[in-house]
Amino acid sequence: MRLEHLIDTYCAAWSQEQPEQRRALLLPIWSEGASYTDPTVHVEGGEELLTHIAGVRARYPGVRIARTSDVDVHHDVARFAWTFVLPDGSSFPEGLDVIFLDPDQVQITRVIGFFGPLRSSAA
C-alpha cells in the first residue's frame, strides 16, 4: 500500500495545476539526482522535472495523469500503466512507466516512460 501511495503521489504531482502544490507533492518523493526519461525528453533532478511538467501542463491545460493498473514491483523496480486524461474526459496516450526506487521504496530514483500500447509480435 505504501508503494501505491508513492506512485499515486507521483501521478498527482503531474496532475496538480498549482506549481507550488506540484512542488510540494513531487520533491519529497523525488531522490536527489533522480532522472526522468520518455520518448520526448530526458531531465535530471526535481527542478528540471518540474519545469518539464509545467511545459506539458501549459500545452494541455487541465490534464491529469491517472494510474490505470496495479503497481507491479520487484527488486526496487516498479511498473504501472497510466493514461493522460483531458478535461473533457477523453484520453491519450496510454503509457507505461518503469520506476526505480531507493532501497526503502520511499523515493523515486529514476523513471523511464513509454507512450502507447505494446505492439503484438507476429507469431
Descriptive overview:
It is a single chain. The protein is of the alpha+beta class and 123 residues long. The protein has one domain (2-115): Nuclear Transport Factor 2, Chain: A (Roll). Helix content is 29%, strand content 39%. The chain is built from 3 helices and 7 strands; from the N terminus they run H-H-E-E-H-E-E-E-E-E. It has helices spanning 2-15, 19-26, 46-59, and strands at 30-38, 41-44, 64-67, 72-74, 77-85, 91-101, 108-115. Strands 1, 2, 3, 4, 5, 6 and 7 form a 7-stranded mixed beta sheet that branches. It is globular. The termini are far apart.
Write the layout of secondary structure elements.
Blueprint lengths: L1 H14 L3 H8 L3 E9 L2 E4 L1 H14 L4 E4 L4 E3 L2 E9 L5 E11 L6 E8 L8
Parallel strand pairs: 1-7
Antiparallel strand pairs: 1-2, 3-5, 4-5, 5-6, 6-7
Helix pairs in contact: 1-2
